[in-house]
Design goal:
Blueprint lengths: L1 E6 L16 E6 L2 E5 L6 H9 L8 E3 L5 H4 L2 H13 L8 E4 L7 E2 L12 H4 L4 E4 L4 E2 L4 E3 L17 E2 L13 E6 L2 E6 L6 H12 L4 E7 L7 H14 L3 E5 L4 H8 L12 E3 L3
Parallel strand pairs: 3-4, 4-5, 5-7, 12-13, 13-14
Antiparallel strand pairs: 1-2, 1-15, 2-3, 6-10, 8-9, 9-11, 11-12
Length: 278
């Protein structure tokens, strides 16, 4: 399996790509091509083109959750497919895999919309929707985790706005992740980890029946975390002892430094390409 970073907050030095506060990975596994999140804008398309990566024949688009820095690239992607059709160029109709609540609107902090811009009905015109709260195996090696159980007492405690039509604070229950199963352990691929990075890893271990963690890449949602959350996370990762960790996107510098004391943490930026054996 090969994972290429198309969007992150940062770029790799001497690699001339675009960055934004968002996330998008291209995952190529055997004959499958999977886009994990779409970032905030169209730069995932521009970066992919500069890298020589084709997005016209994706098999799956997987959304980790509803928020703008992970889903708002969907609109330019649909324009991209429409333009291919206008030019009579071949393209595929990918399946969209996500939790049902990932396609709802969200308002927060005076902002009218930070959730999905495109409704489920409109997306169904362009993509094959596979919405599920349950785990979905995309291949023998790749699984979408669905709704993550929140079992510890130090993560997933903060709400983010309100879902459309609800007066309740939004706990982002749709937040999910991908897992790649290898002969050397699991690769955990996260978007923002609103569900809690430790909760996500524990659920991945349960679903895949494997306690070995080869790598964790993505956002850990450690942005000025409480002392309780950071201490719980550091203690968990020390006991977990993953081979390496690629924390990015919504993981602040102080949290990365703290993690680096207990795990082998690696740099991430647009243009990074990682290879994993199945």
């Amino acid at each position: 399996m090969q994972l290429t970073v198309l969007v992150d907050n940062n770029t790799i030095i001497d690699r001339y790509f675009l960055a934004e506060p968002g996330l998008s990975f291209l995952i190529e596994d055997d004959d499958l091509s999977i886009l994990f999140d779409t970032g905030y804008s169209d730069i995932f398309i521009k970066n992919a083109q500069k890298m020589g990566k084709a997005l016209a024949h994706l098999d799956f688009i997987v959304l980790s959750h509803s928020h703008l820095d992970h889903t708002w690239g969907l609109e330019p992607y649909l324009r991209y497919l429409t333009e291919l059709e206008i030019e009579h160029r071949s393209y595929s109709r990918p399946a969209l895999v996500t939790h049902p609540e990932s396609l709802t609107g969200v308002s927060a902090s005076g902002l009218r919309e930070i959730g999905s811009l495109i409704s489920q009905n409109r997306l169904a015109k362009h993509l094959d929707l596979r919405l599920s709260k349950d785990p979905q195996f995309l291949s023998e090696h790749l699984v979408f985790l669905g709704q993550i159980p929140r079992t510890n007492n130090f993560e997933a405690t903060l709400p983010f706005g309100r879902k459309d039509g609800s007066n309740k604070e939004d706990m982002v229950i749709e937040d999910s992740a991908l897992v790649h199963k290898t002969s050397n352990g699991l690769v955990i691929i996260t978007g923002c980890s609103h569900a809690g990075i430790c909760n996500i890893i524990e659920y991945a271990k349960k679903i895949c029946k494997d306690d070995r963690i080869l790598d964790v890449i993505g956002g850990f949602h450690l942005l000025s975390p409480s002392e309780h959350q950071l201490e719980g996370t550091i203690s968990y990762f020390k006991n977990l002892d993953p081979k390496r960790v690629h924390a990015c996107h919504c993981t602040d510098l102080s949290s990365k430094i703290a993690l680096s004391r207990v795990v082998n943490i690696k740099e991430v930026g647009v243009g990074l390409c990682l290879q994993y054996k199945n």
